[in-house]
Amino acid sequence: MADQRTVAIASTEPREITARRAVRAACFGFFVDMFDVYLPIAALAPAIVYFVPPGLSPEVESTIFFLIFAVTLIGRPVGAIIFGHFGDTIGRRRTTLISVAGFTIITLLIALLPGYATWGMGAVALLILLRFLDGLCIGGEYTAANPLAMEYSPKERRGLYGSLIHVGYPAALLAISALTALLTSIMPSGSPSSAYSVWGWRIPFFIGVILSAALFVYYLRKVPESDLWQSAPKTGAPLKELLKGSNLRRMAQLFVVMSGAWLTLNATVGALPGVGNVLEANSGAVNTGTLIAAAIAVFLYPMLGLLSQRWGRRPTITLIGVLNAFPAAILYIMLVSFGTLSNTIFVVLVAAVSLLGLLIWAVHTPYLVESFKTSVRSAGYGIAYSLATIIPGFYSFYLLGLSKLMPYAYTPIVLLVLGGLFLSVGALLGPETKDVEFSPIEGDETRSQT
């Protein structure tokens, strides 16, 4: 019944209204995704003692905490592969609904978990398993929802709409950080029996459940299936199609670009907390600088989306790569060398470096979606976006290796420069995509090959 109702909506309302519904849903969906991704980093970190045996060394506790976060990142490319197949075979909307229902239920189960005192090591083992499954479903949501939104978007607005979707990332980072700061300020934490450790951490997870359920209902009632996908020829094996010919060459080129995107993000937002600890900076300075960068990014992303629509995806991504390889690297050196002389200077430099590391995420969704034909677009987008997370995801080990050659605080600069070069070179190796005309007929999608 719901499918029939949304089909009727799509057939009777202006396409621009349908596009706005799909973009609004994708934007909210990405906010929910990122809120869920950062739950263990922000909300669970102060309560990790609730899940682990007492008396563990800080190093072992940190390793367990890193594993809880890492399995989510590993689950995302797995989810992109699985749900990408279904996004191209059973539909973008249906796949989105399945994945959203999945991480709604999983987040609820996590919120209800007992701790070590009740289940022993089984509690943390189940937490790790659930976070992996959660990452798998998160990878499915954007793999289906973002191509659905872009397929309804007018060509001349794909840059803007794609950037609006990813405003959800800095907005979610702001929301979860602010919520956790509020909760830890009004209830004690730090011991397995403290109020925050026993039940306070559950509040952000329950909020995540409510947000996910609302997203599910919105897609069910308001967002129709992509008419472009419905009218396009279907392939029974989209993953197989991606591994041959021009699709495989495109995947390889996008792997370079997205590896650069993840390297620059990990070298900035990911590595800066550790750099702050090494430099013995004020404990809240890195968090403050990151939040300032996220707040600026909320307003800057739409401008970058418009720039990429006017100027082109290829030169915009190339410029972002240059900004990370040179100005951001210089600012990073200044941060490490002189930042601790003043807390204000340190915060400003953290904000500047973090902001430059966030820029690529305003542009990548239309660029990736425009790179694939309709029959493999969901799988192509999801895999190109997520598979590149794996190698950069082990950045902490690369930093340890580089620390044998230079002071640890300077090691992220190497990854930042490398990521910037990957962005620029990868973009130059590929075509311009902003003028691609989406078509349901295979081979009819036209591209500018500048």
Automatic annotation (TrEMBL):
Domain Major facilitator superfamily (MFS) profile span(s) in chain numbering: 22-434
Main location: membrane
A UniProt-annotated Pfam family: MFS_1
Gene3D superfamilies, per the entry: MFS general substrate transporter like domains
PROSITE patterns associated with the record: MFS, SUGAR_TRANSPORT_2
Membrane topology annotation: Multi-pass membrane protein
Domain of life: Bacteria
Subcellular location: Cell membrane
GO cellular component labels: plasma membrane
UniProt keyword list: Cell membrane, Membrane, Transmembrane, Transmembrane helix, Transport
GO molecular function, one term: transmembrane transporter activity
InterPro entries: MFS (IPR011701), MFS_dom (IPR020846), MFS_trans_sf (IPR036259), Sugar_transporter_CS (IPR005829)
Residues annotated as transmembrane: 25-52, 64-83, 95-113, 119-139, 160-187, 199-220, 254-272, 284-304, 316-339, 345-369, 381-402, 408-429
PANTHER family: SHIKIMATE TRANSPORTER (PTHR43045), TRANSPORTER YDFJ-RELATED (PTHR43045:SF4)
Name used for this protein in its record: Major facilitator superfamily MFS_1
